[in-house]
Amino acid sequence: MQRTARSLAGIAAGFALILTSVAPAAGAETTNGPQPDSIARQGARAPAKAPATAEALAAADGQDGALQVSDTVGAQATITDIAAAMQPGWNLGNTLDSTGSDETSWGNPRVTEDFLDQIRAQGFKSIRIPVTWSEHQGGAPDHTIDPAYLDRVEEVVDWALDDGFYVMINIHHDSWQWVNTMPTNHDAVLDRYSDTWTQIAERFKDESPRLTFESVNEPQFAGSSGEAQELELLAELNRVFHEIVRDSGGQNATRPLVLPTLHTGSDPALLDALAAEIAALDDPNLIATVHNYGPWHFSVNIAGRTRFDAESRQSLTDQLDLVHSAFVARGVPVIIGEYGLLGFDRHIGTVQQGEKLKFFEYFGYAARQRGFTTMLWDNGQHFDRTANRWRDRALFNQISSSWTQRSGTASSDLVFLPASGRITAKSLRLNPNGTRFVALLHNGTKLTAGTDYTRGADNKLTLSAALLNRLAGDRKPGPASKLVVRYSRGVPWTLRIINQETPVLRAASGTTASFKIPTSFKGDQLATMEAKYADGSNAGPQSWTSYKQFDVTFSPNYAARTITLTPDFFAEVNDGTVNLTFHFWSGDTVRYTLTKSGSTVTGRAG
């Protein structure tokens, strides 16, 4: 491909990135530092089975008389070096993986060169470009991919490579559209899968070795005889993928290839199966991939697991330790191809802001300590692709800081004050996370220890009544002020001071298709909702818990002053009385009684 001046600039930027990626900034923590106790002491990381060849890593970009710039991370770079140079990564979600007729069919704008420049400027070194081929592919016997669509995918890939990105492409939603029928449609699925990868491999075989292929996204199977058969089918797909790509020649002979676990899950049996596959393939240029959306209960806000507490943190730690032991400890690098919180798919407010920030701070640290490359899942809900800015800058600040260092947090980011009556001192627990407390600030001014606050040896921070009375202002319910806890490094922790009264829920009538409770939130925020029948048994979906799933069964709307109970909730509620308890972040609870008869619903407080 003819290179433009912009292309050369992008290649140079990529080379600079590679040089800096192998030497962390001064003061940054590295994977060579102290390891968590949960990781077995295994000494130095085992090397990959063999280094990637110099030929495989040499740039294919410097042809047609253009300036030749090396794509390597070193003359004897291993696949582990390459994976490390891909950290951190970002997903171009809900775009080329859309299942409609065009990449805009799921609401995102068309990708442009300038947009990719914007993403590159955020500090990402790799980009995963999920691609769904189904809507652009003909039938048997050849399953021909629309050349115009292949051209478009190649165009976006080339823009990303020109920007200096490492790039990953895959077979994405095809996994549940047709690949999943393999147990009952084996030969037809295998033929289509083979034809698809044959065409992709041929089109991209001469691209830069900074392009990687991922065999299939979140592999899954329907109608199987069980997990054993599903693991065998995935192993077959991965073997076919490996053979097709390697036999296609060009850069594909040694191109890094990414292989997933079943469901991209982290259960021991799934990890062991993929580890055995990789060992059997005996290829030094393979990378394992899993996805991680945190502990499920916390990630979707169900069963009352509203906080990223010690239990949730341990669950995440255990997941990551299993992946580390299965692969990294054996010299196989790992890319966490997607990470985030599952609740984000419905609403980024499903998990409370402070708890969300604590999760991402710890996840980034824990992944870095285990040598994983991480790729943030973003389907447009994080980086605004029209305004080219982060929708939640505080969230991205926490994510990006975690790439190199830890940040201090606290037991909460919320301090509730009574909107009327006496204000007393309030305490919370600081979590320095290896940093040290430096100062407490209000509007950039340091507050006075001993007068405005006290700090105990156990990291208990107590805000004085005098300070809180000043911050409460006119006592009107709602946000009143902010304090900032500054630590010795990382992102400062913001405390939001809120005037609050017990929320008031009013009588309502409606149907199972549309039921809204008029609510005066009075400065408070809804954490979760319990639902029980009159006899005390659990009501509604997922009846194993009384605490229902946020934004699936209930949803607060602070601007409209309502709490909606969804059709999904009522679909699994029996006629009669249902007692609801709404739990708010201040600690207040409000009871509400529903009466359901067919599709008619009424409700009252108490």
Write up this protein:
The protein is of the alpha/beta class. Helix content is 28%, strand content 23%. The chain contains 15 helices and 28 strands. It has an 8-stranded parallel β-barrel with strand order 1-2-3-4-5-6-7-8, surrounded by 4 helices. A 5-stranded mixed sheet has the order 12-19-18-14-15, with no helix packed on it. Strands 21-28-27-26-23 form a 5-stranded antiparallel sheet, with no helix packed on it. β9 (383-384) and β10 (389-390) form a beta hairpin. The N and C termini lie far apart (71 Å).
Q: Share of helix among residues?
A: 25-40%
Question: From the structure provided, what is the oligomeric state, counting identical versus distinct chains?
Answer: single chain
Main β-sheet description: 8 strands, parallel, barrel
Secondary structure category: alpha/beta
**Mean pLDDT over the residues:** 89
Low-confidence stretches: 1-72
Shape: globular
Count helical runs.
Answer: 15
